[in-house]
Amino acid sequence: MGIFKRVRDIVVADVHEVLNKVENPITLLDQYIRDMDNQIEKANQALSYQLFLEKRYDLLIAEEEANIEKRAKQASLAVDCNEDNMAKLALQEKVIHENKRNLYQDQYDATKKQTAILYEQIDKLKNTYQEFQFKKLVLTSRAHAAKSIKQGQEMLSGFHSDYAMKGFARVEEFVQKLEAEVAASSYVYGTKAVDRKPYIDHLLAETVEAQLAELKKTKEVK
Q: I need a surface site. Which of 7, 67, 128, 150 has the fewest CB within 10 A?
C-alpha cells in the first residue's frame, strides 16, 4: 500500500542523500522517528476504516439474507394460492437480493483479505519502528561516548603538563617559605618572651607591698 512505500522511501532511498548534507546526522534520528510515528498513525486510521467496511458489509449481507428469506416465503405462499404472477414477482425480488448478497459477500471477502494484509504490514512497520528506536538509543549512546572521548583527548593534547608542574612547584616553594617564616617567628618571639624579666606595676606597688607584709605576719604567727 502507498503509506508503506512512503515509509520505505523515507527510511531507505533518501537517507544517504540527506546524511551527506548535514554536519551532525545524529540530529536526524528524531525526525526519522517522527516520520515513523506519522506513518503508524496513518496505518492505524487505514485499519480502522477497513474494520468499519467489514462490519458494514457484514450488516448488508445479513440484511440481504433476511430479504431473500422473506421473498422466498412470499413466493411459496403465492404458489399455494395459485398466484403464479405474484410468485414470479417475489422470486424476481429474491434473485435481485441474492445478486446483491453475492456482491456484498465478494466485497466482504476482498475487504477481509485487505485487512489481513494491512495487519501484517502494520506489524512489520511496528517492528521496524521498535528496531529504529533501539538503533537510535545505541547510536546516540555511542555518539555521546565518542564525543566525550574526543573532548578528553583534545583537553589532554592542549594541556601542557610540564608548565603545570612548574607552576605547582613554584606554589609549593612559596608555601614552604611561608611555613619557614612562621617557624622562625615563633622561635624568635617565643624566646624573647621567656627571657624577659617580670616587673611590678608601679601603680600597684603600694598595695602589693602591704599585702606582702600582711602575708609575712600571718606566717610568723603560725
A: 150
Query: With b meaning 16 or more CB within 10 Å and e meaning fewer, what string describes 144-159?
Result: eeeeeeeeeeeeeeee
Task: Decide: residue 98, CB within 10 A, 0-12 exposed, 13-18 middle, 19+ buried.
Answer: middle
- What is the structure's pLDDT at 176? 80
CA 113 to chain centre: 37
Cα 172 from Cα 195, distance rounded (Å)? 35
The residue to which cell 475487504 is assigned = 111
Measured CA to CA, the distance from residue 136 to residue 138 in angstroms comes to 6
Distance CA 149, CA 51 (A): 53
Helices 84-157 + 28-80 axis angle, to 10: 170
Q: Tell me the domain boundaries of the chain.
A: 2-159, 160-222
The amino acid at residue 202 is H
Euclidean distance between CA atoms 114 and 57, whole angstroms: 14
> What is the torsion angle, in degrees rounded to the nearest 10, for the CA atoms of residue 87, residue 89, residue 95 and residue 97?
-110
Angle CA(186)–CA(191)–CA(197) in degrees, nearest 5? 140
Handedness of CA 50, 52, 56, 62 (dihedral sign): positive
What is the pLDDT at residue 99? 95
- Give this prediction's pTM: 0.53
